[in-house]
């Protein structure tokens, strides 16, 4: 089967790509509007782009002709929190993707408890096993739809007690959820451990 992307509209290409690029980790993002509304939204176009300093990237698209509230908030205030959700939070993650007017806080609407951050004004979700306080560093726009790739630096990590062992995260204990095509999600399933291969150290520490 062959598919020519030039013959497809943006929505059909999106459906195709989100079914191919799987599973995708989910960045569950809190951000603060200029008027003080705490926004919450999930993004599955998400990865890390630097380890020193630690930097994360999320791709934020549009809702209609305008950018999503998260993009506006991050570019306005330059602070936000990226959370990693676990399986018990799956429904809350999905429900937070519902589009609300900017004056509605998804956090309040879903009844989620928050905690203050250490280095930024945006609050973090108490129930999430991982929360990463971020400061905005760069924004790049791509494609005809001009999706915004937003890069931020992690200035503080918050991890649930028991998740880190000898400097490494216990992935099974983290129990993260992933996004696949459509309104569908996945969990880790079986974890396969293979032999360690040699890699040049990334630094001296």
UniProtKB/TrEMBL annotation:
Family annotation (InterPro entries): Flavin_Rdtase-like_dom, Split_barrel_FMN-bd
Keywords: Flavoprotein, FMN
One Pfam family this sequence matches: Flavin_Reduct
Record-level Gene Ontology MF annotations: FMN binding; oxidoreductase activity, acting on the CH-NH group of donors, NAD or NADP as acceptor
TM spans (from-to): none
Cofactor(s) needed: FMN
SUPFAM superfamilies recorded: FMN-binding split barrel
Domain Flavin reductase like: 19-171
Domain of life: Bacteria
Family: Belongs to the flavoredoxin family.
Protein's name in the database: Flavin reductase
Organism: Bradyrhizobium betae
């Amino acid at each position: 089967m062959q598919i020519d992307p030039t013959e497809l509209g943006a929505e059909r290409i999106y459906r195709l790509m989100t079914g191919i690029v799987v599973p995708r980790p989910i960045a569950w993002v809190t951000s603060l509007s200029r008027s003080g509304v705490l926004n919450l939204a999930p993004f599955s176009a998400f990865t890390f782009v630097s380890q020193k300093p630690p930097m994360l990237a999320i791709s934020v698209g549009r809702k209609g002709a305008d950018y999503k509230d998260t993009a506006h908030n991050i570019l306005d205030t330059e602070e936000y929190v990226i959370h990693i959700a676990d399986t018990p939070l799956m429904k809350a993650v999905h429900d937070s993707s519902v589009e609300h007017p900017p004056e509605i806080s998804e956090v309040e609407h879903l009844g989620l408890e928050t905690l203050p951050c250490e280095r930024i004004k945006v609050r973090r979700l108490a129930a999430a096993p991982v929360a990463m306080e971020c400061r905005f560093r760069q924004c790049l726009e791509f494609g005809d739809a001009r999706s915004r790739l937003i890069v931020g630096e992690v200035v503080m990590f918050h991890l649930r007690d028991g998740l880190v062992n000898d400097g490494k995260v216990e992935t099974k204990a983290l129990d993260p959820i992933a996004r696949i095509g459509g309104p569908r999600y996945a969990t880790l399933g079986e974890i396969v451990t293979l032999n360690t291969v040699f890699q040049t150290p990334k630094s001296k520490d």
